Every structure is written in C-alpha cells, then in structure tokens.
C-alpha cells in the first residue's frame, strides 16, 4: 500500500526517527559489533581480504 507524504510531514517524521535511532547507545553498540570498541583497528584489518604488494620499479636505462 503506497501512501503519499508531503515534504513537511516527511521532515517532521525524519527528525523524530533520527532522534530515536541515533543515540549514544546505538552508535556504541554498532562500533562494538564491528569490533571497533575497544579501539583495535587490527581486528577489522584482519577481516579484510587484501593482498598488499609493492609494484616492481621500472627498469632505468643507464645514462652516459
């Protein structure tokens, strides 16, 4: 069921929802769920499947 909502009603509803959702507790639990609390970026980096490599430098022609 689709319902139309005007811009003013949307902004008012958005503001009310924003203040209910973006609480200190919700933000903290989100960071904790991502293993960022206590701050330990190594935990997150270990979950990434990244293979670092150093590019081979170009061959330089000898100069006279």
Keywords:
0% strand, 64 residues, mainly alpha
- Distance between termini? 79 Å
What is the count of DSSP helices, taking H or I runs of 4+ residues?
A: 3
Give the helices and strands as they follow along the chain: HHH
Structural class: mainly alpha
Q: What is the mean pLDDT?
A: 84
Which regions have little confidence, pLDDT < 50, spanning 5+ residues? none
* Number of E strands: 0
User: From the alpha-carbon coordinates, what is the Rg to the nearest angstrom?
Assistant: 25 Å
Please estimate the helix content: 40-55%
Globular, elongated, flat, extended or rod-shaped: what is the shape?
elongated
Lay out the secondary structure.
Layout: H1 7-21, H2 24-33, H3 41-47
Describe what you observe in this structure.
This protein has a domain at 8-34. Helix content is 50%, strand content 0%. The model has no long low-confidence stretch (mean pLDDT 84). The longest helix has 15 residues, at 7-21. The protein is elongated and about 75 Å long. The protein is an all-alpha fold.
Summarize the structure.
By secondary structure, this protein is mainly alpha-helical. Helix content is 50%, strand content 0%. It has a domain at 8-34.
């Amino acid at each position: 069921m689709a319902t139309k909502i005007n811009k003013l009603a949307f902004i008012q509803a958005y503001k009310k929802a924003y203040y209910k959702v973006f609480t200190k507790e919700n933000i903290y639990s989100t960071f904790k769920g991502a293993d960022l609390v206590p701050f330990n970026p190594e935990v997150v980096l270990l979950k990434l499947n990244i293979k670092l490599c150093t590019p081979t430098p170009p061959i330089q022609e000898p100069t006279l």
